[in-house]
Amino acid sequence: MANIIDALAIKLQSKICYHRDANLDYLEIKDMVDKLVEENKELRGEKSQYLDMINSVIEEKENLQHDYEEIKEQVAPMEEQLETVKKELALAKEQLVAAKHENEATKHEHVVANEELMAAKEQLVAAKHENVTAKHEHVITKEKLVVANAELAQRNEELEVLRKRLEESEAMHTQIQQQKRSAPGPEPAHSIRVTVARKSSS
After folding, report:
1. Handedness of CA 49, 51, 56, 57 (dihedral sign)
2. CA 43 to CA 51: how far, in whole Å?
């Protein structure tokens, strides 16, 4: 009988432990379910928020699409203007390249002109030197000309004296010839010499 009671006690104790464990498991499961329910609520709230965000994003996308269409319509003429500007820019680049080439050619011409200018300056300096030399020679020539004029004046005076003497000699010769023609006979040489001497002294 004692064995039966012990067995029942053990069995009862086992049942109590089982129910206690089951109760604990129930409580744990209930806590887990409560947590799952709470998480489910949170997930639903987050889902609702996500749906709202998605709707907002969709609406914003539609607005952006609408704005894109409007911008596209506005950009279309701008693209044409951009193409025109690109063409003008390409033309300007070509003109710039041509201007650079012209600038290089101008620089080369400028260098050549500077070289020619330096050569001209050197020639000018040489010409000035020659001019100074020529002026000096001109002064010398003037001095020589003055001397030559003085000599010429002296020669003219001498020639004038000789001319007068020649005229006197010719006049004397003419007078002698006239006297010879008018005289009936030849005069003595002494009288002729006397006449000539008188005229010479006069």
Report:
1. positive
2. 12
Residues 129-173 pLDDT 10s: 888 888 888 889 899 999 989 999 999 999 999 999 999 898 888
Contact 196, 169 (CB under 8 A): no
Rounded Cα–Cα distance for residues 176 and 186 (Å)? 12
Kindly state the tokens that stand for 143: 């001095």
Alpha-carbon Rg of the chain, whole angstroms?
Answer: 74
Around Cβ 176, how many Cβ atoms within 10 Å? 15
Q: How far apart are CA 34 and CA 28, in angstroms?
A: 10
187 touches 179 (CB < 8 A): yes
CA 28 to chain CA mean position, Å: 92
What is the SS3 assignment for 121-178? HHHHHHHHHHHHHHHHHHHHHHHHHHHHHHHHHHHHHHHHHHHHHHHHHHHHHHHHHH
Report whether 151 contacts 175 (CB < 8 A).
no
Tokens of 13: 């104790």
Rounded Cα distance between 185 and 192, Å, is 13
Alpha carbons 159 and 165: distance in angstroms, whole number: 10
pTM above 0.70, yes or no: no
Question: What gap in Å lies between CA 112 and CA 105, rounded to an integer?
Answer: 10
Query: What type of residue sits at position 180?
Result: K
